[in-house]
Design a protein that fits this description.
With 200 residues, this protein is an alpha+beta fold. It has helices at 3-11, 65-68, 115-123, 144-150, 161-164, 169-199, and strands at 16-17, 25-28, 41-48, 51-56, 60-64, 78-81, 85-94, 103-106, 109-112, 131-141, 154-157. Strands 1, 2, 3, 4, 5, 6, 7, 8, 9, 10 and 11 form an 11-stranded mixed beta sheet that branches. It is globular and about 45 Å long. The protein starts with a helix and ends with a helix.
Length: 200
C-alpha cells in the first residue's frame, strides 16, 4: 500500500485525521518500538512552531500523589506518568466549566499547570473519573513529531474525553488500534462496493 493510499484510507475513517493540533490524540503504531513510546496513547496539550507537548494517557503509576508531592493535602489520587521528561506536574480536568487559570484542551477538558489551582482541586476531593494528575510529560521539537507521523510511527485521532478518562487504561491502546484496523477494512470494502456500483 502506498503512502498516498494509506492517507486516503485514514482520512475516510471516523475519528481519525491527519492534522496535528492541541486536543488531538496520538496512538503509537505497531511500528513504534522505542521503549518510552511503544503502545502509548498521548494527548497533545501544546502544539506550535516551537514544538509539541503531550501527556501519556495509559501509564498509571502505583504510587499515590501524596507520596511524591506531600504538600498537596489529601493527595491520595493515583499519580500518572505523563512522559519520559520528568519535569513538572500537570493535571487534566473534565468539566464543561473551565476553572480560572486552566488551559482549554477540548470543549470539556482543561489542563491545570499551576500548583495553586492543583492544590485546590486535590483538597476538594475531585473524583479521579474527571481529574488526573501527571508527573512529567513528553515533548518534540518543531517538526520532529510531523516527521514521526510521516514515518508511520503515530496515528492521529480526534480528541475524545472518553478516551482521555478511559476507566481501563491498560487496554485503551489495543482497543484504539483495533478500531483503526476495523475502520481500514470497512473503508476499503465501502470504496470497493462504490466502485462496483459505478462500473455496472
Amino acid at each position: 500500500m502506498t503512502k498516498a493510499v494509506a492517507c486516503l484510507l485514514l482520512a475516510g475513517m471516523p475519528g481519525w485525521t491527519q492534522d496535528l493540533a492541541v486536543g488531538k490524540i496520538l496512538v503509537a503504531s505497531r511500528k513504534s518500538h522505542a521503549a518510552d513510546f511503544a503502545q502509548t496513547v498521548v494527548l497533545l496539550v501544546r502544539h506550535d512552531k516551537q514544538g509539541t507537548i503531550g501527556l501519556f494517557l495509559n501509564r498509571p503509576l502505583t504510587i499515590p500523589l501524596s507520596e511524591v508531592y506531600p504538600d498537596l493535602k489529601g493527595g491520595q489520587l493515583k499519580l500518572w506518568a505523563g512522559g519520559p521528561l520528568t519535569v513538572g506536574i500537570r493535571a487534566l480536568y473534565r468539566s464543561s466549566a473551565k476553572p480560572e487559570e486552566a488551559t482549554p484542551v477540548l470543549a470539556d477538558v482543561s489542563m491545570i499547570s499551576t500548583k495553586t489551582l492543583l492544590s485546590k482541586m486535590v483538597a476538594a476531593g475531585t473524583s479521579s473519573s474527571a481529574f488526573r494528575v501527571y508527573a512529567g510529560y513528553t515533548g518534540w521539537s518543531g517538526g520532529q513529531l510531523r516527521d514521526e507521523v510521516a514515518r508511520g510511527l503515530w496515528h492521529i485521532m480526534a480528541g475524545d474525553s472518553g478516551v482521555i478518562f478511559d476507566p481501563h487504561p491498560e487496554t485503551v491502546w489495543s482497543r484504539l488500534i483495533g478500531r483503526l484496523a476495523r475502520g481500514s477494512v470497512d473503508h476499503c470494502c465501502n470504496v470497493y462496493l462504490r466502485a462496483k456500483l459505478i462500473s455496472t
